Amino acid sequence: MKSISKKALISVADKKGIVELSKTLKSFDFEIIATGGTQKLLVENGIESIKVSDYTGGSESERVKTLSQKIAKEILETGEIGLVVCNLYPFFAQQDKKLDEMIEFIDIGGVTLIRAAAKNYKKVAVVFDPGQYEGITDVLRKETLDESYRLELARNALDYIAWYDAIIANYFSPNFETRRYYTAAAERYISMRYGENPHQKAAFYLDRSLHDGFKILGGKEISYNNILDADVAFGAANEFVEEVACAIIKHQTPCGVAVGETQSEAFERAYMADSTSAFGGIVGLNRAMEPDTAKLVTEHFFEVVIAPGYDEGALEILRAKKNLRIVELNPQLIKPVVYRPVFGGILVQERDQADLKDWEVVTKRSPDNYETAALKFAWKVVKWAKSNSIVFAIRGRTVGIGAGQTSRVGAVELASKQSVDRSAGIVMASDAFFPFRDGIDTAAKGGVTAVIQPGGSKRDSEVIDACNEHDIAMVFTHVRHFRH
Q: Among residues 352, 326, 338, which one has the least CA distance to residue 239?
C-alpha cells in the first residue's frame, strides 16, 4: 500500500478493540509502536510491538510518554509514522473527584499526537474511536486510505480534541461570567431525520457525562421539535417542588399546567385547561409516572411524555402506544446556564430561577387567601410562556394562556377567550408590566379578581386606578419573566 508509511503508533486509554485492530495491522505488515499499558496488552496477546520508550531511547513516566522530538518529527514532518491510533484519558467520565485527582486525567501527549497527525493528514492517518477501526481495516484492505479519506479522519480528530478541551475548560471555569471564551462540550447523541422543518438537517448533541440522564424508553424516533417542547414541559412541571404537577406543552408554550392531590388529578386538570390545544402536545411531570396517570395519557394523542422516572406498570401501559415517545430525564440535566446561537455567536445567560420571595400590594384591596394561592401558582406558570405572556388561573390550574403576542392587551384578550371557567375567582399573571390600563379593563371583563405583575411602567398609577375601579387586587413582584 503506497498511501501511508507502514508504521503505527498506538496509545489508547480506551483499549476496546485494540487487540483485534493490531492483529489486522500486523497482517498488513505494519510495525507497531505502543505506550506501556497498551504494549503490555499487545505482547500478552502475542502481537509483536515496540515500547515507545525503547523506540525513542528515552524514558516513559506517568505524565511523559509520547512527548518526544523523534515521534513528533516522524508524525508531523516526515510521515514515517503513517498511522496514529490514540484516544485520551477519560477526563469526561470522572465523578466526585477532587481537583488534584482531576488534574491527572488531563491528557497532554495524546492531544499532541492527534493534533500533529491531523495537521499532516497528507502523509498520516489518525483514528481515535474504536468505532473507526472497522472502517480503517476496510480501506486498508481495499487500498483506499487516500488523502481525501485521511482528511476526513483529520476533521473528526480535530473535533474530538476540541470537544475534549472544552470539557476541561468548562470544569475549570463553570461560571460563564468570568470567562472571556465560551465553549460547549457535547457529542452527537441522537441523529435526527430533520430539524424544525423537513428541509433542515439536525442532531441532538449532549455532554457525554449526561448521557445516562436522558433516556428514551419507547416510541418512535424523537424529533428536534419534540426535544424543544419536552424541555419546556419538564421545566414547567418541575417549577413546582412541593406539589405534584403536570404541564402540557405545544410549540414551547403551555396549553395547561396544574397541580393535584394525585398525579392523575394533576394530569386531568392540566388537560382540562385547554384540551383542544393539548392534542399532539407534550406531557411533562415532576414525579415518576404512575400507572393511573399512564392510562389517562394513553386515552389521548400526545407526541411525548417526559418524567424523572416511570413505574414499571406505567411503562407497560405507555409502550402499548407504539408511536408515543417516552423520555426519562434526570432533573440534574436542567443546568443553571442557557445559551443559544445568534449571528454566528452565542448568547449566554443564567437560567431564570428567580423565586417569588415577597410582593407589594399596590391596590386598596389585598388578595384574599384563595387569590393569594392562585396568584403564586400563576406566577410560576407565566415564566414558561413565550412573551408577551398572560396566564389566567384558578387555584392550582390554568384556565387560559395568551402567549407570544406583540401587545399585552392582545395576550389578555387571548387568555380571556380561552378561559371558560367562571365558577371560581380567576387571577391573572403577566410576565412584564402593563403599559396601559386597557389590559386591566379587558381582564375585568374576563372575570379576573386579582393580578400579579412586575410593575415598573410609567403608567403604573393608571393601571392601579383601573384595578381599584374594578375592585381587583394587584401585587407587584418587581421581577420580570420575559421568555423569548
A: 352
* Catalytically active residues, by annotation: 119, 251
Residues in CB range of 141: below 8 A, 6 or more apart:
none
DSSP structural state of residue 288: P
- On whether residue 209 sits in a domain, the answer given is no
Tell me the per-residue pLDDT of 201-214, one tens digit each, with 9 for 90 and over: 999 999 888 899 99
Instruction: Give the domain CATH number at 395.
Output: 3.40.140.20
Taking Cα atoms as reference points, which of 468, 434, 452 lies closest to residue 371? 452
Rg for the chain (alpha carbons), in Å? 29
The pairing of strands 337-342 and 325-329 is: unpaired
Q: Which parts of 383-437 fold into alpha helices (H)?
A: 408-418
Q: How far apart are the first and last CA of the chain?
A: 57
Q: Which residues of the chain have pLDDT under 70?
A: 1-2, 59-66, 421-424
User: In terms of domains, do 22 and 150 share one?
Assistant: yes
How far is residue 227's CA from residue 306's CA, in Å, rounded to a whole number?
A: 10
Tell me: the pLDDT tens digits for 281-295?
Answer: 999 999 999 999 999
**Pairing relationship of beta strands 473-476 and 448-453 according to DSSP bridges:** parallel
d(CA 398, CA 272): 9
Quote the pTM value: 0.86
Give dist(CA 114, CA 81) in Å, integer.
12
